[in-house]
Structures are given as C-alpha cells and as structure tokens.
C-alpha cells in the first residue's frame, strides 16, 4: 500500500501534528541521560521547520498509567531538543484544553512546540476515539515519525489519522521501513541473523519467520540454553524456558526442512550464581551442575564471527550474554565490533543490541540502527504494524 511522505506535503503556514518517540531515560534529577531518540527525530523536525510549518510535537514518556506525573513530564526533553536544534523549543504543560490551544495560537511559521506527555491520558493507550478527535483538532496535517510505537494501536498513531485529510510518515519511519522491507523482500545473500536475549517466547516467532529468509541463524543469550537443552546438552542451572521447548523442537524441524543452519554456543562463560561478584570460568559444550551460562565463550565468538564474514546481509537483535555485568559482556561486545567491520548490510534492532553498539562506539559503522526493537521484531515476524497501516490507508 502507498504511503505519503512529508516531502509530498505543502506544510508552509500549516499546523503540523508530529508524533515522535521521545520516550527517553531520565535520571533522578529529571535529566535526559540518552539523547538518541531525540537525535533520530531531528531530520524530520528540521525539515518541517525549514519548510515553515507550525510544528506541534506529541510523544509519550514512561508509564504514568493515565495520570499526570511530574517526574514523567516532557519539559526536560523540550530543553534538550532546543539545545540540539540551537533554537527555542516551546513547551505546553497541557496537551489539550485552553492552555494548549493558547500555546498553539502563538506559533509562527517555523516555530516548534512540544506538548505534555500523551500517556497522562488513559484514552491514549486505549485508542479512545474522542481523545483522538481532540488531538486531531490541534492541527491541519498529521505526520508520524515514532517507529518505536508503530506496533501499538494508540490514539496518537492510529485513531488520530481518521480525522486528517493529509497524513504522512516522517524520514525516520521511511528509513526504518526501507531497511526492514529489504530484509524481507530482497536481502543480499548470504543472509545471517543473530538472535539473543533471555526468553524463547519473545523471539520464537521471528526466528520461525527468519528461517524462510535467512541462510544462518546464530543463537545467543539466555534463550540459547533452551535450544541446547532440546539438543541434549547439560545446561546446569542456566535459564530454561521449559514451557516452550516444544516450539524449539519445531524450529529445529523447520530448519531441517528448509535446509537452513541454526548455530548454537559451543562453549560458555559460567558462574555459580547470577552475579558479577563471583568467580567465573569457561566450559565447553555441557554446563556442569551448580553453574549457569552467562555469556558465550571464546570459541563460539570465533565461530560466529567466521560465519558472519561470508554474509552480505546481517540482522542482529538481542545480547549474547548478561552484558550489563563486565565479566559477561565479551560475547555481546565482540559481536558488535565484529559486524561493524563486515562488508555487509548490517541492521541492528532492539534496545540491548543498540546499547551495546553504542557502548563500543560502532553505531556509525552500521548500515541501520532501528529505533523500535519491538516494532522491528513484529515486522520481521510478518505482522502488520497498526501505526504504519493507518498511514497507508490515508496515503
């Protein structure tokens, strides 16, 4: 289905409601500790400002459960956005009502206004129709650039589109879809996927779908131990998703039918408990009783990097171990550094994977870093994303 882009719109002098994803981390003093999501929205914001739009930004922040919460106000975000734009960004302490309308009425062409947290209203996450209609009444044109919420049917990204004659996607969403659609429709081969994380149930469906697309799937993180258990290896006290072992068996059967390769860790960094303060060691294949796997081992790293070297397309979602603890971060950081040097299209999705890439300073070496881990996974599962479909229907 066709989708309008902001380049298809005449926005000069128009009030443009721009849905962004400014769900950024704040410290105890309400200071923004990571500006990545703000920076990711800049191309669209700058374009609309340059074209003379009267820009009204809306976003959620945290989980205030439908009630105002001073600690989850977007005011600090407005200050950071103003700093990175090197211009004033106005802030409205209200999203709707007379205060909000007064702030909007003061906008001149090229001005930028950030509204208060969408999730202070319970109707946002319920996709309330009246709430969506009130949001739409704030502006003339709607633009969605919040890919991180595209898999959720909320008022600000789905319901609101019914009340606009013109709705479009911003540059961030356009870029996300370009890379993710290419993974599904026309990936350069060989195509390798690296899937990590703790829980099988969170990734099992995307792994199943990727078996139709990829040549190799490399498994790491806590979920690897469920795969190893099904293959008959001892996993000690490692995390085990016992209720989904049948799904793992189905994955192995599908891989065999499709002639695809699933790679599992051949050695492990283990410890007697989930702690960075205990002794750890390297073990091969079988994990002894009383120990749990917390990272992939050095031989697995070598094997995975060797497999990835032949790839022309690489998708990575999920850490290889408990990389928040320095004793168990080598696997994840090695994969991040390894794929940054590959002559391949490299797409990284998921908060932990993105964090690892940023920590090793390799973000600029990746072809694409997705701003929506959950949305990118659902897209690769073959699911329709409500926030994108709403734009397609209007386009």
Record keyword descriptors for this entry.
395 residues; alpha/beta; Rossmann fold; six-stranded parallel β-sheet; 15 strands; 15% strand
Architecture blueprint of SSEs:
Layout: E1 15-19, H1 36-40, H2 42-50, E2 54-58, H3 75-85, E3 90-92, H4 98-105, E4 112-115, H5 122-125, H6 129-136, E5 141-144, E6 167-169, H7 171-185, E7 191-195, H8 200-210, E8 216-219, H9 224-230, H10 245-258, E9 261-263, E10 267-271, E11 281-284, E12 292-296, H11 298-309, E13 313-317, H12 330-340, E14 345-348, H13 351-359, E15 368-369, H14 373-380, H15 386-394
Parallel strand pairs: 1-2, 1-5, 2-4, 3-4, 5-6, 7-8, 7-13, 8-9, 13-14, 14-15
Antiparallel strand pairs: 10-11, 10-12
CATH class of the largest domain: Alpha Beta
Count of individual beta strands: 15
Classify the beta-strand content into a percent band: 15-25%
Any idea what the CATH architecture of the largest domain is?
A: 3-Layer(aba) Sandwich
Tell me the number of structural domains: 2
**SSE pattern:** EHHEHEHEHHEEHEHEHHEEEEHEHEHEHH
- Helix % is 25-40%
By DSSP (H or I, 4+ residues per run), the number of helices equals: 15
**Unreliable sequence segments:** none
Shape: elongated
Q: Main sheet: which strands, in order across?
A: 3-4-2-1-5-6
- CATH homologous superfamily assignment of the largest domain: Phosphoglycerate kinase, N-terminal domain
Rg of Cα set: 23 Å
CATH domain topology of the largest domain: Rossmann fold
Helix- and strand-based class? alpha/beta
Overall average pLDDT: 94
